[in-house]
Amino acid sequence: MPTAEHLHERIRASLPGAAISVVPNGSPSAQHGLLVGTGDAEAVARFLRDDPALRLDFLSNVTGVDHAPPGEPGYLEAIYHLYSIERGHGPVTLRMQTADRSLGARLPSLTPVWRSAEFQEREIFDLFGIVFEGHPDLRRILMWDEFEGYPMRKDYVTPDDYEYEPTPHDTVLERARAHDAPADPPPDGGTPPP
Amino acid sequence: MNTAEDLPETLEVSMGPQHPSTHGVFRMNAELDGETVVRLKPVFGYLHRNHEKIAESISWLGSMPYTDRLDYFCSLSNNWGYALAVEKLAGIEVPDRAEHIRVITAELTRLQNHISFLGFILGDMGAWGTALMYAFREREYVLDLFEALTGSRMMCNYMRFGGCRCDLPPGWAAAAGTLVDRFPRFLDELERLLVGNEILIARLQGVGRVDAARAIDAGLSGPVLRASGVAYDVRKADGYGIYPRFAFRVPRGEHGDCYDRFMIRVIEMRESLLILRQALDALPEGPIQNPKVKLRNFRPPAGEAYGRIEAPKGELGFHLISDGTDKPYRYRVRPPSLINLTLLEEMCLGHKVADVMVILGSIDIVLGEVDR
Q1: CB-CB: which of A85, A119, A152 is closest to B338?
Q2: CA distance B90 to chain A (A)
Q3: Which of A43, A111, B82, B276 matches a 20 to 30 Å C-alpha distance to B115?
Q4: Pairing relation of β-strands B36-43 and B159-160?
Q5: Is the pLDDT of residue A193 over 60?
Q6: For chains A and B, what is the number of CB pairs under 8 angstroms?
Q7: Which residues constitute the domain of residue B93?
Q8: Which CATH superfamily is domain A4-149 in?
Q9: How far apart are CA B67 and CA B65, in angstroms?
Q10: Neighbours of A162 (CB within 10 A)
Q11: Whole-angstrom distance, CA of residue B258 vs CA of residue B117
């Protein structure tokens, strides 16, 4: 099993100038990551897949993450977990970060390298709003096409659709009352409608 | 007025979302030339409830019963996948007896999943009812065991970080042993009836072929990957739990067609029975839960972990990111059913529309997991 430091050296040697660094992982799992710059991501991915000693041919998982610490601009991230079926090792964690959390935040798509990313990158586009450049079919996948917003972002506000709840309970009724109450109290000081 | 030249040469058919052979609420937009599929686009999301977002708002342990609802046929496998990822994240040891119980329940889950699969795919081919009835008869015996152990037949919510929720009730291991002894007779009967059946061969062989290189590239996993000739099984590759202690083989197909995907499941059930017999014989006494783990107000250290298991439908992964609080910062499920559908269009192209149902059935999806 190649360590992240070892992979970092290998990539540095084979692709000089590639923007890549090791991201340490504090958990006992010790699955350290490799952060790759967006400009070099596809070249690094192809190297990891095709290098005869690595042969990371199986992309298992793609995770989208929204890093939104309060008071800071934050960024969005896509994390790829790679295994090698041929050599039997893994996981190798490859990470890419967007420049900011704006609505059109972009990352290069790795679907041309691993087809397995196709639905998973679509899902991240759908739920986080990362635009994967070079993806063959970037559409919403789980939400409907007309849906607005990106539900997995940390600042997403859930719509107040309590009226669809079949059996409203106390807190919901409370919210409904506040919603239905007139903006200004009645001039004669009467009680607001129940 | 339209003349024959004006009419389009192909017909668009929307299959699903409400149709018995879509195994849930799943839609395929197919474009047909005569009866031949020339384009097919899957449409997802009818069962989407943003499982991952919900998990971010509840405690770590609170997601455990929720994992039952991913692949609702295989709740015990899902429990294990989540528990395994959390145990990697927090560095938790699992007692030996709990590891044995996990293997036993996971393999029983595989048995009842594959047996239901056989019933369902026969239904997709038109043998509606009969095969499924016999399959469900056998599945009931497994579900009876689950009910005796966990109190629930499908929503088991049984595993915990560092062990299991409760010990085996008296006589449970003996009852499981009886089931393991009896099950091969049913498999013999099933193979005699089905495996050489002329109609089954005509409907399955050469249909929906995928070669090994494309299967790996598209991230197919589980029986679908093995049917394409790749003997890759997470139980062997990762050796998680105590699987390295047991002798079993990983079957693989040759042609990557629907027939191989069907047969892989039949053979895998026999291998599961081998594992079950070994695990039941080796079942030690001892605690079933690591006492150091505080399940209430559970706070793993900040960091992240990716853990995966060989679920009956493929590779089920959980990617968890902790910021040291009592809720996950990010909780991601790698759903095998969704990713196994990546090549659905390629599998169906050039086949008749009636084969689409069989190809979809041979992948063995469950919409609770596809849409999450």
Answers
A1: A119
A2: 6
A3: B82
A4: unpaired
A5: no
A6: 113
A7: 48-370
A8: NADH:ubiquinone oxidoreductase Nqo5 subunit (3.30.460.80)
A9: 5
A10: 15
A11: 13
